[in-house]
Each structure stands twice: as structure tokens, then as C-alpha cells.
Amino acid sequence: MSDLHDRWVAERRREYYYRLAKKEGYRSRASFKLLQIDERFNVMKEGDSVVDLGACPGGWSQVAKECVGETGQVIGVDLRYIHPLDGVQFIIGDITDDNTMIRLLEMVGGKVDVVLSDMAPNIAGAYSMDHARSIELCMYAVDVCDRILKRKGKLVTKVFQGDLFNGYIKELEKRFEKVTVHSPDASRPTSSEVYVISSGFLGTCNVKPKKLEKEEVKPEFVAKGRNF
Questions:
Q1: Which helix (H) or strand (E) segment is 178 a member of?
Q2: Class level of CATH domain 30-201
Q3: Spatial CB neighbours of 135, under 8 Å, sequence gap ≥ 6
Q4: Residue 160 β-bridge partners
Q5: What's the half-sphere exposure (Cβ side, CA atoms, 13 Å) at 125?
Q6: Structure pTM?
Q7: Which residue out of 154, 158, 170, 178 is catalytically annotated?
Q8: Whose CB among 137, 167, 204, 221 lies 3.0–4.6 Å from 119's, allowing a Cys bridge?
Q9: DSSP per-residue string spanning 109-123
Q10: Over the Cα atoms of the chain, what is R_g?
Q11: Does the annotation mark 152 as catalytic?
């Protein structure tokens, strides 16, 4: 009976935030997760530069742009095409691919104040596999921080809980002054996802980012033959 009640509550909550997103003009009900996180932890402020990983369909980028205002910068990254959003730049690419990371570094042109990651793996149905892939994506977000996050900067990541979770938290604690695990009201009560808010980036971690290598561009094949 409890499981049935939890599913009913989750469905009602999902419908509520879905309708509210439509009403308020947000692209995703997930926008309210970031709004609630920002309200509680003051993640972003006017003038900040923000990178949004796993940005499609753009709901978090919308919220980020509202927070940073006209003087701020928001860059979203996702594998999928994202419809244009005023004041936001998008990169269509895989952040786990070196060439996408290089494009991001070139576009940022320095350091950013905040890295957001709502990335999630394609659900395989085997929870241990989904959890491991979630942690892997979160570690790519950490790698982005090691490259482009300012000292005292902040990171917000979505992660599925599991046996690798504590190890991930330890990696964050090497790099940040404060690490907090939080579940916003907009999350489903039955979901295993949590959000980790890390603040006060130390910028002194001995762990070096993996070496980036641009993909070699091979010349086009031209068939040899006689000129007539």
C-alpha cells in the first residue's frame, strides 16, 4: 500500500511541476529543481559565468540566465540539438569527447563561476550499471571544474545514489570547501537521484585533468588518375 501511495504522490508532483513549467514558460519541470536549489544555496548571482552540462531542452540554462542577468554568461552543452535561447550559447557535442571539451574551453576563454550538471545516463534498466554511468558523468563534470572553474566557484551535479556514491563525494571534498547532498521538493519522492552542491572550489587539487588531444583531421581521399 505504501508503494502505491508513493507512486501516486510522485505522479501528482510530476504533473504539478509539469503544468507549472508550462504556465511559467520554462522548457522543463526540472527548472524548478534548480530554482529551489539556487534559492536555498545561492548558487548563482548577477554577472556570473555559468556552464550547463546536459543542458537539453534548456530549462536549467533558462534559470541560469535569469540569475546571471544581461552581464552574465551561460554556455550549455548537450549531445542533442537545443532550440536557441536568448542570451545563451549552446554547444552540441559529447562532453566526454575531447573535441567538445576543447570547444568549450575556447568558448569560455578563461574561468567560470559555476558549473551545473543535470546529466543522466541512458537508463539501461540495470541499476548498478545506471549508477556507475551516472558517477562517470559526474566525474566528467569534475574534470570540467578542474579546467575552467574559478577559485571559490561552485558545482551542482545530479547523481544516482549507490555503492560508488561515497567515493564520488570524497573526490569533491578534495576540491571544495563545502559539499552538501540535497533533494529539492521538485524531485520525485521515489527517485534515487540527489543533487550535490559543492562550493568554495580550492583550485589546488593535485589531481590533474586528463590530457586533451584534438582528433586528427585526415585529408580527403583523392583517386589518382591521368589528366585528359
A1: strand 176-182
A2: alpha beta
A3: 159, 160, 162, 164, 165, 167, 168
A4: 193
A5: 0
A6: 0.83
A7: 158
A8: 137
A9: -S-EEEEEE---PPP
A10: 20
A11: no
